[in-house]
Task: inverse folding
């Protein structure tokens, strides 16, 4: 093999660079996101219950918000009847964020972790925090 | 390794039953996951076949009365006040216009001269036949079938501005910049702002109607603005229209505006 030294050296350099993201983070565990529900409104609740069950909200809140927005804006329906029969005003700004008034500790915690950037807050006004 | 006809049918039938059964179970499971809704109208909300407004020019005693309506609207909807040095970037929901600009097709040359010098309060006309809706490529602007309000769905607007070209009343404004830094007054935290790159306009306060309140401008107008269901003969707006001579902006275009102007009411501005 001609120039085997150069080729092998090149290969090694390539492998080192290509695996850099893995080797650099080896052994370092990125902190698991832990969204906080420690807000005044939620702490006052006798039973800490969101609109639907925790598991449903975890997996389906994006579809739910999509449905809510279409129902409110396009159909004019404003009330949501939850599985337990309670009625809620369908509003991100006035219902969701009333309880979850800690956007940076609740929404952003997971969204940043999975690197999604929903554009809700371009228009909707986030609650004041640390007041 | 051959099967006879009878055995083939047995296997085929069994497979079909299994497939159908599986599909129903899967559908049931899926339905359970999607258990979302029902969605209901707010019973407090005001209902109408078609909302309309009558502007009684004679009942505006001064410019301050008009400004009060504009301020109320802009406060409730977080409308930005863009630098007057850039008039093309102005965001207009409710504003004033001269007679020649508001009614350019009107051929009556010699109407009472003081009307020609009044500031006419103009807004989106919520046309029965809205050209903006026809041109919108994403159906971001649409006419609500339930009450005739021409709505904007900001989530869908792609900022192409076809609607602005189509609207004969100039009732639509484009956000060339992020409007938030230009909102001078205290934010109304119950209503969103807009973002860069969407078109906005008056929405007949659909969010207030849904809660049972009259539009913000009507509430502070001291009766100069009458609002109601034009299909209901007992509504406020019909009472005004039945007893006064009214004109509409550019009726010759066939858009059938829902905003009427009372000309020659009893008190003069």
Result:
């Amino acid at each position: 093999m001609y120039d085997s030294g150069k080729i092998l050296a090149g290969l090694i350099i390539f492998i080192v660079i290509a695996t850099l993201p893995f080797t650099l983070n080896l052994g370092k565990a990125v902190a698991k996101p832990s969204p906080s529900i420690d807000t005044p409104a939620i702490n006052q609740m006798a039973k800490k219950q969101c609109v639907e069950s925790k598991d449903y909200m975890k997996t389906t809140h994006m579809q739910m918000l999509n449905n809510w927005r279409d129902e409110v804006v396009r159909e004019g329906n404003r009330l949501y009847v939850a599985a337990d029969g309670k009625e809620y005003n369908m509003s991100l700004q006035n219902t969701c964020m009333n309880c979850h008034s800690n956007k940076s500790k609740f929404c952003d915690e997971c969204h940043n972790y999975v690197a999604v950037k929903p554009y809700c807050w371009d228009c909707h006004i986030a609650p004041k925090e640390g007041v | 390794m051959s099967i006879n006809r009878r055995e083939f049918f047995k296997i085929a039938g069994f497979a079909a039953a299994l497939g159908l059964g599986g599909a129903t179970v899967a559908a049931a499971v899926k339905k359970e996951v999607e258990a979302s809704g029902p969605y209901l109208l707010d019973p407090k909300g005001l209902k109408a076949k078609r909302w309309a407004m009558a502007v009684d020019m004679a009942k505006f005693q001064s410019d301050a009365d008009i400004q009060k309506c504009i301020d109320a609207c802009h406060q409730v909807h977080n409308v930005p006040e863009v630098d007057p040095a850039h008039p093309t970037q102005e965001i207009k929901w409710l504003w004033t216009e001269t007679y020649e600009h508001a009614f350019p097709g009107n051929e009556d040359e010699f109407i009472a001269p003081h009307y020609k010098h009044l500031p006419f309060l103009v807004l989106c006309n919520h046309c029965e036949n809205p050209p903006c809706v026809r041109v919108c490529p994403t159906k971001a602007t649409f006419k609500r079938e339930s009450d005739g309000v021409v709505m904007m769905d900001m989530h869908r607007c792609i900022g192409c501005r076809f609607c602005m070209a189509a609207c004969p009343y100039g009732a639509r404004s484009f956000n060339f910049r992020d409007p938030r830094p230009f909102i001078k007054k205290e934010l109304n935290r119950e209503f969103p702002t807009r973002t860069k790159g969407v078109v906005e306009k008056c929405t007949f306060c659909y969010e207030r109607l849904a809660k049972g309140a009259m539009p913000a401008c009507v509430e502070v107008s001291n009766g100069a603005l009458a609002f109601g269901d034009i299909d209901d003969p007992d509504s406020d707006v019909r009472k005004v229209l039945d007893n006064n001579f009214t004109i509409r902006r550019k009726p010759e275009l066939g858009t059938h505006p829902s905003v009427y102007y009372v000309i020659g009411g009893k008190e003069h501005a």
Notes: Chain B has nine helices and eleven strands. The radius of gyration of chain B is 26 Å.
